[in-house]
Amino acid sequence: MLNLARSVLVLHGRATHTRRKIFALQRFIRLYCKTEGPTSVDFTQIPVDRIRNFSIIAHVDHGKSTLADRLLEFTGAIRENSGQNQILDKLQVERERGITVKAQSVSLLYQYKGDNYLLNLIDTPGHVDFSSEVSRSLSACQGVVLLVDANDGVQAQTVANFYLAFGKDLTIVPVINKIDLKNADPDRVTRQLKSLFDIEPYDVLRISAKLGIGVKAVIEAIIEQIPPPAVNRQSPFRALLFDSWFDKYRGALSLIFIQDGNIKVGDEIQSCHTKKTYNVKSLALLRPQEDPITQLVAGQIGLVGCNMRSSKEAHIGDTIYNPSCPVEPLQGFEPSRPMVFAGVYPMDQSQHVNLRSAIEKLALNDSAVTVEVDSSPALGQGWRLGFLGLLHLEVFSQRLQQEYGAEPILTAPSVTYKLRMKPNKHNVKTGREIFVNNPALFPDFMQIEEAFEPMVVGTIITPDKYLGGIISLCMERRGVQRSATNIDNERVMLQYDLPLCEIIVDFHDSLKTISSGYASFDYEDNGYQSSSLVKLGILLNGVVVEELSNIVHITKAQTIGRRMVLKLKDIIPRQMVQIAVQAVCNGKILARENIRAYRKDVTAKLYGGDVTRRMKLLAQQAAGKKKMRMVANISLPRETFIDVLKK
Fold first, then answer.
1. What are the tens digits of pLDDT across the range 577-591?
2. What distance in Å separates the CA atoms of residue 269 and residue 281, rounded to the nearest whole number?
3. Among 18, 265, 376, 514, which is 20 to 30 Å from 119 by CA?
4. Which of 388, 410, 432 is the endpoint of a domain?
5. Are 253 and 396 in a shared domain?
6. Does a cis peptide bond (omega within 30 degrees of 0) precede residue 443?
7. Is 519 helix (H, G, I), strand (E, B) or coil?
8. 177 is in an annotated binding site
9. Is 392 annotated as belonging to a binding site?
10. Is 125 among the annotated ligand-binding positions?
């Protein structure tokens, strides 16, 4: 038909050999064939027993997005050899870094043994910082495809994701990917799966997602092994809202899994969480582009547009129902809790309005970010943002720059500490607890009865030849070993209790350096633990600079204090008076460095004479310096704070 289109243009004398006309007609024909073709299917007529809802879970860079691309091609959702990779990774940062940040859903249609099956795929992130994306995605699934690299084998996030799916009682389809690689060893990986998860070797599929080898077997295993959703289409409408994002023209769009009943355009729906009522304006299936439809039925996953004003109204884990038929709320899931906090300030206060607008828009699409207004005498008006982890912070910062052209200053990340305060005349009750994530707000040590710091359970999988260096690194970071398990003859899995503040900055980089990149790391929250925490302050000529304060463990206060004063000595510009840079903790000076003052040679004009003249001029200069030091205010340039506070 495309050749016919070109011939028609020639016969009518309109072929001027300009590609623009030919391409326009080709697009028209493709669009016509897509909309009027005989393959259109009424999705509402697909019975529940032919619906499969599943996710792909794996460690970072084990091929989740590549397998998702092959599934899209194999089921006809996209054309083969279209030249596009990572179809479901829509953000620029995802394509640049080669990672999945935001879980994406797509509905696939596949014909198996003469019947049409609806496969709802959710591609999930693999990095530990986005484990909440994985958790809420699994709430809408009945099974998962557990993907493992045939070269790298089982990694730390593989273990975490397996037990996450296992705890939700989901069917697990084990798949070994990248069997086409030169150093691939599927047999070794199969033994690891048997040792760690008790998965039988004959249940494991072997594929190459890049080359498309074995993809058909994966689809058939999904259909045969994963059960259909346990739903009831005859009951009143009830759905689980498990994801949302913001569209500037349509408001908040909600991705829902329909548990019971059906929903049509024009229906009235209500939120169990906010009790607000909305009118359904649009419904769509993601294939992967939005495919508008008029009705969704139980068992399906679809997109609902109902003029919600903000993503805050689309509460993740909420139950949506018809207000005329009240229902019991569905079991939701734990909301994501920020683990890492950082201050965000504009490079210049003239950019404050633009940065505020960028943060507000980006926070609408990322419900895991918490935003609080903050201010600093050194950096001006800003915000204190909470993130799920360090990578989440880096991705958010990169998106601010790429998508909105902002230039933020990010302070060093910190965590939230819990403090139990002593009773005083204003608070007669003992045991009052407060939470602090900003060192400048840390109270005086005389008011604190007990301090607690957040802990995590870290899982490290490494070749055994790097074991000594990794154990030393964990001990240096105040880790306590829980267990050590041999996966096979070459690899060991370690579990450590670690303080969160010790791993958020450079632990992962140090681990990769020690292990030459072969070790993998994953962690999960483990509550709070009592700890000896102190506030490390910085004094400039006896004056406290709160912006340079830090919360540290008492055993590391002197080391960090010494490092801070040496760094400040190098970057603080010399002034007319001597500057004493001191690190102080609980009223005790731990480290000190002096920045010498500028000194004019007042004896340069002397050409001889009595030595008393020279001594008199030097004494006058010393007296002037002393007087100046008593009244001088040390003015630090903005760049100094940026150099110290930036991560």
1. 778 889 998 888 999
2. 11
3. 265
4. 410
5. no
6. no
7. coil
8. yes
9. no
10. yes
Is 178 assigned to a binding site? yes
Q: Does 102 belong to an annotated binding site?
A: no
Residue 147 sits in the same domain as residue 67: yes
**CATH of residue 491:** 3.30.70.240
What pLDDT is recorded for position 133? 65
- Is 123 annotated in some ligand binding site? yes
Residue 326 lies in a domain: no
**Residue 318 marked as a ligand binder:** no
DSSP state of 576: S
Residue 222 CA to residue 389 CA, distance in Å, equals 33
| 343 in a labelled binding site | no
542 is annotated as contributing to ligand binding: no
320's tokens: 């949506």
- Is position 127 annotated in a ligand binding site? yes
Q: Binding site annotation covers 444?
A: no
613-635 confidence digits (pLDDT tens): 778 877 887 777 666 554 445 55
Pull the structure tokens for residue 71.
Answer: 């599934």
Given a contact cutoff of 8 angstroms between Cβ atoms, the answer to whether 590 and 562 are in contact is: yes
Question: Is residue 582 helix, strand or coil?
Answer: strand
Q: Does 180 carry a binding-site annotation?
A: yes
Quick one: how many helices (H) and strands (E) in the chain?
15, 31
Q: Which residues of 72-93 are buried (b: 16+ CB within 10 A; e: fewer)?
A: bbbbebbeeeeeeebbbbebeb
63 annotated as belonging to a binding site for a ligand: yes
Residue 124 in marked binding region:
yes
pTM for the model: 0.71
**Residue 530 contacts by C-beta under 8 Å, 6 or more apart in sequence?**
450, 451, 452
| Backbone angle region of 405, left / alpha / beta, with phi > 0 → left and psi within -120 to 50 → alpha | left
* Residue ranges making up the domain that contains 622: 535-645
Cα radius of gyration rounded to whole Å, the chain = 31
Please check whether residue 158 is in contact with residue 58, taking contact to mean a CB–CB distance below 8 angstroms: yes
Looking at 225, 247, 269, the residue that finishes a domain is 225
Write the DSSP assignment of 165-198 as a string of letters. Answer: HHHTT-EEEEEEE-TTSTT--HHHHHHHHHHHH-
Q: Are 303 and 242 in contact (CB under 8 A)?
A: no
Q: Is 509 annotated as a binding residue?
A: no
Low-confidence ranges of the chain (pLDDT < 50): 1-39, 630-632, 646-647
